[in-house]
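Q: For a teaching handout, I want to show students what a protein-ligand complex looks like in token form. Below are the inputs, and the small molecule is 2'-deoxycytidine-5'-monophosphate. Please produce the holo structure.
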Amino acid sequence: MIVAIDGPAGAGKSTVARALAERLGFRYLDTGAMYRALTWLAMKRSLDLGDAEGLATLAREQTVLFSDDERVWIGGIDVTSSIRSDRVDRMVPVVARHSPVREVMRDRQRELGREGNVVIEGRDIGTVVAPDAKLKVYLVADREVRARRRMAERPGIGADALATDLRKRDAKDAERMQPAEDAVEIDTTDLEVEDVVDRIEALVRERSPAA
Ligand code: DC
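A: Here is the structure, written as tokens, with 2'-deoxycytidine-5'-monophosphate included.
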């Protein structure tokens, strides 16, 4: 079965999706990491980030790979840490907005999600990548709390810069950030990770008692 977890930056998707996958023994797929890896490679090669077709070709030629130890690879390079830089944070929405790029990524995500049980995390999983997912969850949280969470991940950046970055990213991601009609929305503002995972686990077991 597929569990789709969507929501804005800082809503807790990665932490929750990873913990949920581990608890259920499901695979975990971080689709944001795929857009980040492509962005990193395009910047490394000094490509024009406005060139939708060029970037889609790059995405087709340089598949993003996840190794068993959950490291992220592109073009034979381990980019697990590099894709979390603030340069990539800033440029990834520019790359992710190109439809031809999204087509390539979505096909690959469907391929990776096809077998067995998997938790897939992103923005458009419940709506476009896996509209038949058995369970769709849409995580939200107050922007202030989301900014604070990101600050913990990026200690080098000031609070104001982070809040501005987050606002800009929200605006750029907005068109893809619609929850699926049948998604269960969970507001994580005042919840601990464990509580969110408990809730989603209960939903999974309700829908698929054998999971
Ligand atoms: O979740 P994240 O911050 O790692 O996502 C990185 C960027 O990729 C973000 O700008 C949104 C975009 N993204 C997307 O458009 N579709 C997805 N399925 C996943 C991420």
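A: Two things your students might notice: The domain at 28-116 is CATH 3.40.50.300 (Rossmann fold). The longest strand covers residues 135-140.
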